[in-house]
């Protein structure tokens, strides 16, 4: 849908790029000399978190307009602030080195790995800003354009292959998918979102995911967003959710693991990471994901045209959704869900009930890997296990206690998956199917059962080699065995006896 405004934006070409860069400069300068310094209040954890988040913008500014990027300390704080924060004991440069022979991490990247702050891919950012497409498919190579568009035509399919889509979009699956869904729902026009700001926001979200993470990267975020879309389309939700609910649901899915470091909360706590101290060892990662998302919302001014109270309310609700993905609070949410279903008292005309269902939908989307067709599920299982073992290797290297499920010597992909499916995924999706008794729910449970059986079969045969691939039709009950899932391994009960 091309509005006159979009047309105007596109026509402006270079002047728009210049204006955009200039507005970026103005925005950054304004932060540096007003808001940012004014926001440094250690009386408020919110402001402190946002301050830390926004420090990334200072770095960007310096990288854009100065060759000197050494002014930042290795942990990313301004020198005068360093004493205010505990720092990391472990060298995070080891986090993403695949092997001892891996190439040394480039200097520019070290800053980000230490600080979790945004590393600006300036050339890509500027390029994307000046060639702003109101349709993100604009950035694709011609050869892939048609295929990616074809895939988007079936974006509501549970068999949607996000790995293929990511390749077809040249690694821009999260940007392309999120924009497509917002546009498809008409949310851009409805909320009068500025196209340039929206583009900036989504691109920055994608870039703030760590592509070095085997699992917690932008493709996982895109996968969760696609799953969320499937749930939003379910009849019970579709007929009761408001446009605001849908906007929040999609944004929460896209940002729910923003700036994930590839290690879990216990790791951050035992290494005295500043984020653990900042969030008092509670939902450390989820709080960081949320504050990171809020930082980007404010940085781009995506909601700046809304009344201040509405903007703050959106930020709060976004936080409530993202915080619900803390797997250590799984039983709390599941018990509440079960209680509502037992009492049959969920009323989706009630805003708080709708919000709760959105929380449950996001939780399902976040750990739905074992409910996907085997070929997709298996890939996710291998990726998450790789990330676990990577953490375990770092722990061993630094003589730290190896976290549960992170020791490659005593765990296998199959064992981890079977335990995860049995104790975490099945209970959640069984209740979801009670709430939303649809073909999709039955399909997901079908895949889950088959995937679990496949991992069990592989374990029994003593081989975790390639299992027999099975066909995977879409809606109808699932075919093969599969796997995958999410973070916080220490919360996952042991595998089946
Ligand atoms: Zn996640």
Automatic annotation (TrEMBL):
It holds the Pfam family PDEase_I. Its EC number is 3.1.4.-. It comes from the Eukaryota. AMP binds at residues 216-220, 257, 366, 417. GO terms for molecular function: 3',5'-cyclic-AMP phosphodiesterase activity; metal ion binding. Pathway: Purine metabolism; 3',5'-cyclic AMP degradation; AMP from 3',5'-cyclic AMP: step 1/1. CDD domains: HDc (cd00077). Its cofactor is a divalent metal cation. Residues 140-462 form the PDEase domain. It catalyses: 3',5'-cyclic AMP + H2O = AMP + H(+). It is an enzyme of class 3 (hydrolase). Belongs to the cyclic nucleotide phosphodiesterase family. PDE7 subfamily. This is Phosphodiesterase. It comes from Clupea harengus. The gene is pde7a.
């Amino acid at each position: 849908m091309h509005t006159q405004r979009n047309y105007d934006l596109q026509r402006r070409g270079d002047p728009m790029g210049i204006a955009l860069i200039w507005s970026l400069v103005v925005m950054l300068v304004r932060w540096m000399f007003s808001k940012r310094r004014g926001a440094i209040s250690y009386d408020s954890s919110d402001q402190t978190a946002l301050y830390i988040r926004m420090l990334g913008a200072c770095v960007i500014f310096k990288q854009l307009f100065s060759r000197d990027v050494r002014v930042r300390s290795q942990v990313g704080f301004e020198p005068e602030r360093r004493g205010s924060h505990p720092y990391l004991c472990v060298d995070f440069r080891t986090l993403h080195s695949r092997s001892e022979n891996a190439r040394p991490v480039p200097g520019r990247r070290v800053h980000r790995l230490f600080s979790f702050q945004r590393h600006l891919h300036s050339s890509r950012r500027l390029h994307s800003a000046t060639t702003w497409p109101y349709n993100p498919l604009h950035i694709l190579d011609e050869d892939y354009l048609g295929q990616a568009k074809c895939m988007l035509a079936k974006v509501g399919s549970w068999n949607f292959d996000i790995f293929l889509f990511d390749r077809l979009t040249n690694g821009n699956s999260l940007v392309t998918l999120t924009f497509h869904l917002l546009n498809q729902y008409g949310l851009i026009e409805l909320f009068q979102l500025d196209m340039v700001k929206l583009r900036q926001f989504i691109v920055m979200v994608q870039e703030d995911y760590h592509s070095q993470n085997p699992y917690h990267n932008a493709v996982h975020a895109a996968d969760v967003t696609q799953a969320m879309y499937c749930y939003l389309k379910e009849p019970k939700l579709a007929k009761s959710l408001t446009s605001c609910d849908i906007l929040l649901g999609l944004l929460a899915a896209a940002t729910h693991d923003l700036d994930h470091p590839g290690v879990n909360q216990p790791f951050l706590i035992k290494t005295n990471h500043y984020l653990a101290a900042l969030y008092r060892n509670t939902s450390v990662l989820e709080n960081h994901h949320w504050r990171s998302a809020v930082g980007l919302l404010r940085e781009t001014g995506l909601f700046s045209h809304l009344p201040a109270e509405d903007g703050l309310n959106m930020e709060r609700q976004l936080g409530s959704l993202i915080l619900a993905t803390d797997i250590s609070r799984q039983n709390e949410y599941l018990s509440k869900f079960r209680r509502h279903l037992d009492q049959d008292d969920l009323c989706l005309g009630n805003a708080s009930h709708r919000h709760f269902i959105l929380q449950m939908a996001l939780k399902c989307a976040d750990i739905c890997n074992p409910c996907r067709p085997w070929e997709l599920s298996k890939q996710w299982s291998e990726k998450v296990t790789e990330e676990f073992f990577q953490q375990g290797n770092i722990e061993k290297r630094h003589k730290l206690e190896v976290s549960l499920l992170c020791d490659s010597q005593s765990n296998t992909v199959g064992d981890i998956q079977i335990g995860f499916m049995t104790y975490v995924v099945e209970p959640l999706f069984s209740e979801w199917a009670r709430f939303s008794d649809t073909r999709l729910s039955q399909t997901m449970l079908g895949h889950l059962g088959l995937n679990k059986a496949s991992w069990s079969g592989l374990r029994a045969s003593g081989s975790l080699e390639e299992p027999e691939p099975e066909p995977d039709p879409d809606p109808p009950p699932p075919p093969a065995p599969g796997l995958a899932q999410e973070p916080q391994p220490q919360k996952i009960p042991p595998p089946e006896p």
